[in-house]
Amino acid sequence: MIEVVLNDRLGKKVRVKCNEDDTICDLKKLVAAQTGTRADKSRIQKWSNIYKDHITLKDYEIHDGMGLELYYN
Amino acid sequence: MANRTDPAAKSIRGTNPQNLVEKILRSKIYQNTYWKEQCFGLTAETLVDKAMELDHLGGTHGGNRKPTPFMCLVMKMLQIQPEKEIVIEFIKNDDYKYVRILGAFYLRLTGTDVDVYRYLEPLYNDYRKLRQKLPEGKFSLTHVDEVIDELLTKDYSCDIALPRIKKRWTLETLGSLEPRRSVLEDDFEEEEEKEENDQLDGLEDEAHEKQDYYRGRSPARERDRDRRRDRDRYRERDYDRDYDRDYDRERGRGRDRDRDRERDRDRDRDRDRDRDRDRDRYRLRDEKDYGRDRERDREWEGRERERRDRDRGRRRSHSRSRSRSRDRKDREGGEHRKRHARSSTSPRRRDGAEENGTREEPKKKKERKEKKEDGTDHPDPEIAEANRLRASLGLKPLK
């Protein structure tokens, strides 16, 4: 179980607990549950790399405590 | 300049009509090449030409959320605000299905509640296929009536939040709308009558059972006799239901069949639940019937569901006291006898469940789809909370 920090630089910073083998899509759903935006409206990035929905966190090498950027579509 | 709404346009729902589309999506559409090249200076007539060239519908797709031409045209319609007659012409036209969907979508966004129901419901009869672009970028198959159903029942479609409209029954009670008449109504009524006849036969027999019970004859013999009677009767009912199912399949009335089966399933489930509560006491006496019942019952597909319900019921009855179940027996005199006719668990399985009740539970739960119990009984409350959320989203629990 890892904890990921999502920051949208507009005031929303959420910590989400998830498994390593969750996909980015699952992570978006968890974030949506916590922030109240829709899951398909959010976009998770790291610099300019937009993370794709079907790839797991483990494959993106997202570790415990790592920070990701949250943008909106 | 090209993105300003027509100054003569009315405001919709209190705001600039283009604001029906969210800011981010709106900016994406303005930056889109299709919008810039094709949608410049369109009028209602030229819009129709563009609409006829459409070959798929959808919202946005891809990593950077590129809008589809369908979206751009919807935006253009919001910008120029064609007359209601023109929109209705779009919907009524039969040749081009995407023009129809475009008109329907625009009406859903801008029309009044009554108009929406009045003009969109006839489109339920249109069964043509449509190509839909998914957010991943792939195409999927959908149908006109499915899209209309989405527009009328959901509040989000094609990446646009649809404005709230009143529910149909509200409008019916207000008198603005007639109750809905489906085209399949005549066929459906036939099926309903058949169902009612079957059900009536079942109910009559229950009444007889209750009388016998209270007359106070020897309960064991009474039960055996009734059990045999029930079994035959239920066998007939099963056959009727199977016959209906096949009959429907031939006629191809998919929707009715599912509706009927749903009703049957729900009815059975309720009956099962009542039955389960009293089962414990009759365990020994049932064992000799298991052999006979088991064969016949396995044929019917509904058994799986019953078994699941029974398992759930079995766990429930563990925790209840005997006195309580005895009271329940008096209340539901006839019910327990019905249960005998249909019980089909193997004796071995039942005894196993009695002995290691708790050990069996997690295994059985795993057989079904992911259940909340898998992780929400975690000692740490935070993790239990997180697991509950995950279960509601359909994810596995945290490791």
TrEMBL record, chain A:
Entry's transmembrane regions: none
Domain Ubiquitin-like stretches: 2-73
PROSITE patterns from the UniProt entry: UBIQUITIN_2
UniProt entry keywords in alphabetical sequence: Ubl conjugation pathway
Keyword RNA-binding: no
Pfam families: ubiquitin (PF00240)
Domain of life: Eukaryota
PANTHER family: UBIQUITIN-LIKE PROTEIN 5
The protein, known as: Ubiquitin-like domain-containing protein
